[in-house]
Amino acid sequence: MEPANHFTVLRRYWRLLVGCTVAALIIGLLLTPTGDTVDNGKWQCKVAITPVAGAGEAVRADQVLSYAAGSDVSTAAAKTLNITDVAGLVARRKVAAASPTMLEFTVTGPTSKSCVETAGAFAEATIKGYSQETAKSASESIKRLEAQRATQQDQVNKLQQEFYSAKPADQPKLDPQLTAARNSLTKTLTAISDLQAVSQTDAVQQWGSIDAKELGGNLLTSPSRGLRLTLAVVLGLALGVVAALMLSRMDTRLRTRNGAEEAFNLPVIGEIPYLSTRLRRLRDPLVVARPSDPGAEAFRSLRSTLLLTGPPALAAQLADGNLNPAELVSRRLAQPAPVILVMSGRSGDGRTTTVANLAAALAETGREVLVLDCDFRHPKAHEHFGVGDGPGMAELLSGEQLPELDDLIRRTNVDGVRLITGGNTTAYPAALVLRAGEVLRRARRHADVVLIDSSPLLHANDAYDLVQHADAVLVTIKAAT
Q1: CA 143 to chain centroid
Q2: Is the four-CA dihedral 441, 443, 448, 452 of positive or negative sign?
Q3: What's the angle, vertex CA 202, arms to CA 200 and CA 207, rounded to 5?
Q4: Considering Cα of 277, then 281, then 285, then 291, what sign does the dihedral take?
Q5: How much is the CA Rg of the chain, to the nearest whole Å?
Q6: What does the angle CA 94 – CA 96 – CA 100 come to, to the nearest 5 degrees?
Q7: What residue spans of 166-282 are helical by DSSP H?
Q8: How many Å apart are CA 379 and CA 392, to the nearest integer?
Q9: What's the rounded Cα separation, in Å, for the pair 46 and 103?
Q10: How does pLDDT run along the chain (481 residues), one tens digit per residue?
Q11: Where does residue 416 fall: left (phi above 0), alpha (psi -120 to 50 degrees), or beta otherwise?
């Protein structure tokens, strides 16, 4: 499809484009906050926490992780940052075990500074809080071990007294007991010393510096509501364009001259502009009622093209107007008038309007035109010529009455144009065209041009039966709008 055709399609479906754009704008208004919000995902910071050197088994990674993910750390960090929305702060941080001896905080923020401060606050709250919990636990353990140490010291003192007061022969028996008691006491004192060291220093520490990097933002994460709504409008418009092009692909209606020529494999010899309802309801053909109207000029252009490309008899030199009726009949017997059948696919395609205006345009050239209304289902040609309904083609073809053409030909309000109306159909319409050949042979003697208005092709078979008797066929189609 050429670019110009794309613009034509978009212009045709402009309501769809507007609808999609407005719908996208409304959805954008409903789904986006009323004010500008902060993009908390623009920066990302990471900070690692590990046990201090020498902490040994006193610090367990799973315990540190559990404590770091708890509410105490989040509350303490929010207090440090002077933030009241603790839930929002928690949503911006993630904590996970990077290794068996290391946990890592991942924090997002709108700026590098705020992101680093938030990560540092979580790390500080974890180190301080967990160290306090560790110190408290160590103090309780020291109290327990102090009681155990006192008992063990009493036992050692007692065994020493027994050892020194015993006979030299009995001392070897008491020596192992004294040694075991001293070892237990030493072990307890060592444990107390270790716990005292732990209680006096932090159990965990920050490892390395805070790693900060910019994630970057885009229209999807833009803090500006205006940008988000602009994006919604662009997406809605794009959706409308895609929908319009798809509908155009699926639309099989004929809209352009090229489309009609490709569909019928026939040349288009005339294009008539759209006629308003007021112009279509005129009592006279547009060529007569509004001779300067663009539509009238289009029908004259159709007449000229038809004279140049139609049957040779149509463009033949007209008879001298001074001939008497007998000489005129003799001339028409020698050169029968051409018959032009006008057909269309369906009702409303402008077939009867074309017949009436083409007849008037041909009459302007001095030709005598005879119009035959062979639309037996909905005859309307008489309405375009200001002629009342009455006996016509139905009676002529059925042979019921008034078999002579002269008795049925009626003058119209257009000079040079005469008409045989559709008549009152009583028989099956399809059976009436069986005598069409003889009737048309006689009709050629009464005019210079014979125009036939037929039934729609998609509603009846009448037009197909009339094609064999016509010298030219003019198909009218209505461009889809």
Answers
A1: 74
A2: negative
A3: 155
A4: negative
A5: 52
A6: 165
A7: 171-200, 225-250, 257-264, 277-280
A8: 10
A9: 10
A10: 556 667 777 887 888 889 989 998 888 888 766 554 555 567 888 888 888 876 656 677 778 888 888 888 889 988 888 988 888 888 888 898 888 888 898 998 888 888 888 889 998 998 888 888 888 887 888 888 888 888 888 888 888 888 788 777 777 877 888 888 888 888 888 888 877 776 777 778 888 888 888 775 554 455 566 777 888 889 989 998 898 888 877 776 676 777 777 777 888 888 888 887 777 777 788 898 888 999 899 999 999 999 888 888 887 756 555 555 665 566 666 678 899 999 988 888 889 999 999 999 999 988 899 999 988 888 888 888 888 888 888 888 876 554 677 788 899 989 999 999 888 766 566 667 777 888 888 888 888 899 999 988 888 777 888 888 899 999 988 876 5
A11: left
Residue 20: closest CA among 228, 241, 251: 241
336: Cβ contacts below 8 Å, ≥ 6 apart? 313, 441, 444, 445
- DSSP result, 6-20: HHHHHHHTHHHHHHH
Q: Which H or E run contains 48? A: strand 43-51
Can you read off the two tokens belonging to residue 274? 């759209």
Instruction: With CA atoms as reference, report the closest residue to 352 among 384, 327, 377.
Output: 384
Determine the Cα–Cα distance for residues 367 and 297; give it in Å rounded to an integer. Answer: 18
DSSP 8-state secondary structure symbol assigned to residue 479: P
Per the listing, tokens 């000079």 go with: 415
Pair of tokens at residue 328: 């005129």
Query: How far apart are alpha carbons 362 and 346 in whole angstroms?
Result: 25
Element (DSSP H or E) covering residue 334:
helix 325-334
Kindly list the distances between the CA atom of residue 87 and the CA atoms of 2, 179, 263, in Å, as whole numbers in the listed order: 56, 59, 67
What pTM did the predictor assign?
0.54
CA-based nearest residue to 442, from 356, 340, 360, 370: 370
Which H or E run includes 339? strand 339-344
